[in-house]
Amino acid sequence: MKYNNKNKNEIYTGNKSYPGKKSSYDVWTRGNVAEAFPDIMTPLSWSLWGETMNELLRNAFRYYSFSSEVKEKCFIMLNNRKLYYNIGLVNLYMKKIGLFSMDEIVGGETAYRAKQQKGRIHWIKFLFHLPGSIKAEKNNGKLEEESRLKWREFWRYHKKWAELDYQSMNINELFHLFNEKIIYGKANMHLHTDATTAAFSKMAMLQWKLKKNGYDNSILLKLVNDIEGIEMAEISKHMEQLKHMIEPLEQKQQILQCLKNENWEQSLLDSGFPQVCQFIQDHLIANYGHRGKNELEIKEPYWAENPRMLLNMVIERCENKEAGRLREQEKINVEDKKFGKLIRQARTFTMLRENNKHYLYFIIAEIKRIIRILNLKLCGIIPQMEQDDIYFMNYEELGRLVRDPSEFEKIKANVTVRKKIYSQFLLNCEEPATEKPVKQILRGIPACYGRAEGKVKVISHDYAGDIKKGDIIVIKSLDISWTPLFSVAGGLITELGGILSHAAIIAREYNIPAIVNVENATAILKNGDQIILDGETGVIHYDKTVSTS
Question: What is the chain's percent helix, strand, coil content, to nearest 5?
């Protein structure tokens, strides 16, 4: 997607605008950014995180001589309520350092073009910027220790915050705490973006080095699978323990029926299954309740607030046998002297990328908890304010309202217009129908090696739970909060993402063949289609006459 100068004020919505002429480097893609942000975003969420994300992405180039130039650039934008990533700008600065494009690592529309290009290092540029690269490398060297310290800090604060009674606080006190958490979250978000930048660059370098030495891309994926220590991947163990608790009981179906009820806790207790209720609370909600779908969207509930999505996954896990490891982890022999350090770094920063996000989202969940109470109190003193109005104010408007509730009369007009636009996008967010290509073959970026044959299950972000063992999930994008589904699914196809997308990382942890960045997959493939997915070549066949032998 090229830069649209006519809509620049709409495009660069947020705390700052970026007027300017059309530039050749402005190439926008959905790519990995769609994992962090939902398809449709409320004004409050974008006003909190939009410019912050831009600052963090600019900061990735802080050690280089052109860093002052980068400060004036826009890396992420909101256009028609969808988030886009300026891969053209990223590639421009990667090439200034002397390195190659990041298209295939990041994913998005430009990745198709990138497959035709040869990645190469411009050694003169690389050597010129070597001092900056050394500083960046030193920072990366400290990142793991700093991250682990922060994990403990975030966990301590999470426990402390749980004891706070927000209901007893007044509006000004709540807004003060809201600001505190926003500042604290923004101050620590660099942990995730630094780890992401490091993981992307190490993966790109490893990919380049492997190709130079005659290895194909499947070797790269085999070298970076089965990474130990990814917190969100551990949810599978808890799910399996719960399944083993429920499976032998004669009342299994009764328990699953209780879990389908809205008041599932009381239903379990009334039916005589307190141990099941306690296990879910102590192991799933206590450890993962701060996660959920579309996590940076303030309007979206987290699992502890509304665990329906999580419970649906529990039910599916208990109703279906685990799809299981489709193959043994392969031990790949490559020369350790050449590749050993890069492999270890790529794996370490990938783990940090996921875990730093996991622990940072304790803060995001707390911000959501505060805003819910603040919203109730504001609605209580402003009769004409509706329950969801707060999400359609920006941060500056919310501050004005807290200081002077009479400001709502001025703010309401903006809120009404934004809610109408938001509703229209919700109704019209489906992609137009796409006819199946004559060849009945789709292509994308291989994300986890292996072949799988199975029925397609197209799911949306409003997923209600009906995946069967061996189904091949087809979805626009997946965040790591969808991890529990991977134990049942036989394969994965996403429209967005690259080889370091969250979906790709977790698919490799579960050894599930996966292909990402498959254009129009959710429109072309239909529920029940029998397909063959080749995770080594990135090819999907849906001609039923094709043999898997």
Answer: 55, 10, 35
Mean pLDDT of 362-390: 96
What is residue 105's predicted lDDT score, i.e. its pLDDT?
73
Distance in angstroms (rounded) separating the CA atoms of residues 360 and 292 = 13
The Cα–Cα gap between 442 and 440 comes to 7
Q: How far apart are CA 207 and CA 215, in angstroms?
A: 9
Confidence of residue 545 (pLDDT cuts 50, 70, 90): very low
Taking only the tens place, the pLDDT of each residue in 56-102 is 989 989 999 999 999 888 888 887 767 788 888 888 888 888 887 77
Of 283, 445, 447, which is closest to residue 350 (Cα–Cα)?
A: 447
DSSP code of 501? S
Contact 513, 532 (CB under 8 A): no
Report the C-alpha dihedral over residues 13, 18, 20, 24, rounded to 10 degrees: -80
Residues ≥6 apart with Cβ < 8 Å to 52: 186, 189
Average model confidence (pLDDT) for the chain?
A: 84
Nearest to 93 by CA among 22, 197, 229, 207: 197
* Cα distance between residue 305 and residue 292, in whole Å: 10
Indicate the residue type of 197: T
Structure tokens, 27: 């190439």
The CA distances from residue 28 to 93, 287, 444, 473, in Å, are 15, 36, 18, 26
Q: Please give the model's pTM, rounded to 2 decimal places.
A: 0.87
92 or 39, which is more confident? 92
59 closest CA partner among 47, 51, 71: 71
Side-chain-facing half-sphere of 495: CA atoms under 13 Å = 18
Q: What was the pLDDT predicted at 478?
A: 77
Q: Mean of the pLDDT values across residues 227-254?
A: 90
- Measured between alpha carbons, how far is 494 from 538 in angstroms, rounded to an integer? 12
* Buried/exposed code over 145-172 (b: 16+ C-beta within 10 A; e: otherwise): ebbeebbeebeeebeebeeeebeebebe
